[in-house]
Write a structure and sequence with these properties.
Length: about 400
């Protein structure tokens, strides 16, 4: 596999560990509510914090805040990178059919089977009747269907359908190239920041960052939805001419200047978190001005963090790593299953006297190992290879050989 493809594969393995860490540490944030939310009482705060532990450490707040500014954007960007080669290889119709199976089937099975099982411990924390039948009665009368991390699947499928429609109208990707096509890294990131800010700032005025819109099993964050669309199509635009040359070349400017991009990621985070913190303790016009500055800092930090990580992996991790290769191969299955293990392990440690760091470490390690093992096992049986198979690797190799 070429160097850039190896680096991106390794990033995928690294990113799934960040996702698991983020969810594992949420129970131990210093800023979480003082007590767990009632399962059947609005505003259903347990959707954001399923398990609330009395053991806290503010270091997890900083870590999760850093992931918060870029993690989902990065996932959509990486998801878009290989869409165009896949469309060229399969055609729009077969592409949509394969993505419907790969994303739609886990989404449907996940919300019907995994999500009730994953949220049962959330109910148990405050339940008077711990029976499954009592839980199921309360689950059925919720005004929405909790989907946990699986919202990403339906949202990504919708974007894949949009991409297929665009491919039918513009198979050469000329329009995408003009709007978001690759360029010299600093100019490309500057353009990405401007487009992201233009899409995010108006929505940030209308919606709070923690606000979700829910229609049955379909949920999304309205303040961030347009950002995800932008990053997905930005990834497609980079992937149209190929990833082994240009912006993501392993020997290109982005990789050579990894230290500058890494420093930029840190600076971008500071430019977001400081005005964000100040806006929470200010009032009136000052708070509004700080919020606008923080919202632009969010757009800046998102792009700089994504490209900071890309630069490091293109420079230092464009080689084979058995561990990262296995993680990358099983990353999708791990994403689907990890939430179940995270919540149950957090619940199991509630009465433990361990420090927050110890609990978080146990939850992260246990969830990573269990979801990794589950994904690897399902990838070898029944329809597992069709859903959790090696589609992306086949697309990468075919695109490179052609």
């Amino acid at each position: 596999m070429p160097k850039s493809s190896l680096a991106l594969s390794n990033i995928r393995g690294f990113l799934i560990l960040l996702v698991i860490a983020f969810h594992s540490f949420l129970a131990y944030l210093g800023s979480t509510p003082a007590s767990p939310a009632q399962f059947n009482s609005p505003p259903y705060a347990w959707v954001a914090y399923p398990i609330v532990d009395s053991a806290r450490w503010f270091g997890f707040d900083l870590f999760c805040a850093f992931l918060y500014v870029f993690m989902m954007q990065f996932m959509f960007f990486l998801s878009g990178l290989f869409v165009w080669p896949s469309l060229q290889s399969k055609g729009a119709k077969i592409f949509v059919q394969s993505r419907s199976v790969r994303l739609g089937v886990p989404f449907v099975l996940g919300i019907c089977l995994l999500m009730p099982a994953a949220h049962y411990p959330v109910y148990l924390v405050t339940a008077l009747d711990p029976s499954w039948s009592a839980f199921w009665q309360q689950w059925k009368v919720l005004p929405f269907w909790p989907t946990g991390q699986l919202w990403f699947l339906w949202f990504l499928l919708a974007l894949d359908v949009l991409a297929a429609g665009l491919y039918r109208m513009d198979p050469d990707g000329v329009l995408l190239g003009r709007l978001l096509g690759p360029d010299e890294p600093s100019r490309y990131v500057a353009r990405l920041v401007m487009v992201t800010a233009a899409g995010y700032l108006p929505l940030a005025v209308l919606f709070e960052p923690w606000e979700w819109l829910k229609v049955g099993p379909f949920s999304f964050q309205p303040s961030f939805s347009l950002i995800y669309v932008i990053y997905f199509f930005a990834g497609i635009a980079v992937g149209v001419p190929g990833i082994e040359s240009g912006l993501l070349s392993a020997g290109g400017s982005l990789a050579r200047r990894w230290s500058t991009w890494s420093a930029g990621a840190f600076i971008g985070f500071v430019l977001w978190i400081i005005p964000t913190a100040l806006s929470l303790v200010s009032g009136g016009a000052t708070a509004q001005a700080l919020k606008i500055f923080a919202d632009f800092g969010f757009a800046l930090s998102s792009a700089l963090s994504c490209f900071g990580i890309l630069s490091v992996f293109l420079r230092f991790f464009a080689t084979r790593s058995p561990v990262l290769e296995s993680l990358s191969r099983n990353a999708y299955g791990m994403y689907v299953f990890h939430y179940l293990f995270v919540v149950w392990l957090q619940y199991g440690l509630l009465n433990s006297t361990l420090f927050a760091a110890s609990k978080a470490g146990l939850v992260f390690t246990g969830s990573a190992v269990l979801s990794w093992t589950t994904a690897a096992g399902l990838g070898r049986i029944t329809i597992g290879p069709l859903i959790f198979g090696r589609e992306r690797r086949r697309v990468v190799m075919k695109a490179h050989s052609s």
